[in-house]
Amino acid sequence: MHILVIEDEEQLCRSMAEGLRMDGYETDTCFDGEEGLELCMTENYDLILLDLNLPGIDGLEILRQFRTFNTNTPVLILSARVQIQDKVEGLDLGANDYLTKPFHFEELEARIRSLTRRKFIQEDVCLRCSRITFDTRTREASVDGTPLALTRKESALLEYFLLHRNRIISPEEMIEHLWDGSVNSFSNSIRVHISSLRKKLRTALGYDPIQNKIGQGYIMED
After folding, report:
1. Segment-wise mean pLDDT, segments of 10 residues, the chain, 222 residues
2. pTM value?
3. Mind giving me the DSSP string for the chain?
């Protein structure tokens, strides 16, 4: 995942970039509107974090010009502007989300996960990893073309692992996205569903593609 952060508060910008890199995202930064617009137009990003009050070119103008060129890349506005008309204008110009400053980094992480998940679900009809295929429209999984019988929760887990392969996924993240916060991170429900999914994949593949990183979570590697 490649993210661009356009933010004129250099300390905040560097802090966000460092946190995102620790999360496994490749991150570029810039501190003014002109450079930000140039990067938007010339580089291929999976997500753009955009401040509004920028020197050179205002964030809304960057968004306006960028959307004439690219309508697919998600844009998350980060702004101290709290008036409803500012939010409405940003969303009407093509922003996918609006986060008001100050914010907790955990909320920023959750917004990013939500936007990138939507992007990949929309773009990738079939998700693949090695010999595993998952059709996001029909919700059908297969290994080497042979259908894999999964429960609804197992299908959701497999899809999430495929969307976020090569990255450790914590139990808390699974709760947030797949359990709607209805269980806690120590619940046996998570372990039961993951264990069942791993058993089915191991039977079909001859090996287990999902590894448990003790104290951290689970990862599916290519």
Report:
1. 92 93 90 94 91 93 92 90 85 91 90 76 70 87 94 89 88 72 62 93 95 91 82
2. 0.55
3. -EEEEE-S-HHHHHHHHHHHHHTT-EEEEESSHHHHHHHHHHS--SEEEEESS-SSS-HHHHHHHHHHH-SSS-EEEEES---HHHHHHHHHTT-SEEEESS--HHHHHHHHHHHHHHHHHHH-SEEEETTEEEETTTTEEEETTEEE---HHHHHHHHHHHHTTTS-B-HHHHIIIIITT-S-TT-HHHHHHHHHHHHHHHHHHSS--EEEETTTEEEE--
